[in-house]
Q: What sequence folds into this?
């Protein structure tokens, strides 16, 4: 029997795309998800096991009953605002939940982990672009929870022989190219879906003047006054996870490593809006409101280390690819009114 990859959080946005890609690449896939924020119908391959990270008995049983080669860990809460208001929820799920997973892995001699980390661990960087050596100073509990797990991985490497690669995502975007699976959050807080929701509303006959689309601040020190972010297609994220797994196979004694995942290019909010207008053919409006507290003016990755050491390169570096694929998905699966 072939060895399996266990994907925690595999019913979520990025996790479900990961499951699909692993299946397409010929891997045997197990999915472990409590379905509190995931969607069972997003799991298009593999075997779905409904379970919680804190259920150590169930985790142990999964590792005992299946021949698991490695874990790809996506089971995290990821709303920055929510983390500020509910930090206990984030530390319990993202930190202690992950430690429960790691302890079950080590107890069952599964010693390879690809971890979904985030550029939120950097906080408000003093210099750009952001490299892996940029100081990590998270400004919210979400980023802090991910940084804490990175430290745990560094400590578990020499103590327990755990081989890990933490991938620090910049802004995940897009959907599967064929429109069969996509991004579903409740509530939705990400810029690209919110823009496309507004395009759908206007396309359906809504008055552009009634827009609820908000641009937070137009007085940043950027080329058009709005924030700049680095957007990476979800399938490029997934291919990097497979590249990370392959690197761990070849370098089992490297311990804990960390890599940025981005496209080395930033887009302003207004540039994203303009690109969405071009792709959708819909002329929609927006409202400019005050800045949000703690929004850095610019977050752009230097992902050259991942490109060289993982032998990885983003295929969909142009944000219009992400927009086209997301528009296809949302056109067929519009948000509830």
A:
């Amino acid at each position: 029997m072939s060895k399996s990859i266990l994907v925690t959080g595999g019913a979520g946005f990025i996790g479900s795309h990961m499951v699909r890609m692993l299946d397409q690449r010929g891997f045997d896939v197990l999915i472990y998800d409590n379905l509190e924020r995931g969607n069972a119908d997003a799991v298009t391959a593999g075997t779905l096991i409904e379970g919680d990270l804190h259920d150590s008995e169930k985790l142990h049983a999964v590792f005992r009953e299946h021949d698991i080669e490695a874990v790809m860990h996506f089971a995290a809460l990821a709303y920055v605002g929510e983390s500020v208001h509910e930090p206990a929820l984030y530390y319990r799920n993202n930190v202690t939940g992950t430690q429960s997973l790691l302890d079950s892995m080590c107890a069952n001699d599964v010693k390879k982990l690809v971890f979904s980390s985030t550029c939120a661990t950097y906080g408000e960087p003093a210099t750009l672009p952001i490299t892996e050596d940029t100081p990590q100073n998270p400004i919210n509990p979400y980023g802090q929870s991910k940084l804490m797990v990175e430290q745990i991985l560094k400590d578990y490497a020499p103590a327990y022989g755990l081989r890990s690669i933490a991938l620090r995502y910049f802004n995940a975007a897009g959907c599967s190219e064929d429109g069969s699976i996509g991004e579903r959050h409740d509530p939705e807080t990400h810029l690209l879906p919110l823009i496309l929701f507004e395009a759908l509303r206007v396309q359906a006959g809504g008055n552009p003047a009634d827009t609820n689309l908000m641009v937070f601040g137009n007085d940043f020190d950027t080329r058009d006054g709005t924030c700049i972010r680095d957007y990476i297609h979800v399938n490029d994220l997934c291919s990097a996870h497979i590249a990370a797994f392959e690197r761990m196979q070849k370098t089992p004694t490297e311990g804990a490593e960390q890599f940025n995942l981005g496209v080395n290019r930033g887009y302003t909010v207004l540039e994203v809006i303009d690109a969405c207008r071009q792709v959708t053919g819909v002329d929609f409006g927006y409202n400019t409101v005050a800045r949000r507290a703690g929004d850095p003016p610019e977050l752009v990755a230097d992902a050259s280390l991942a490109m060289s050491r993982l032998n990885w390169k983003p295929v969909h570096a142009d944000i219009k690819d992400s927009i086209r694929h997301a528009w296809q998905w949302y056109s067929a699966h519009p948000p509830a009114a």
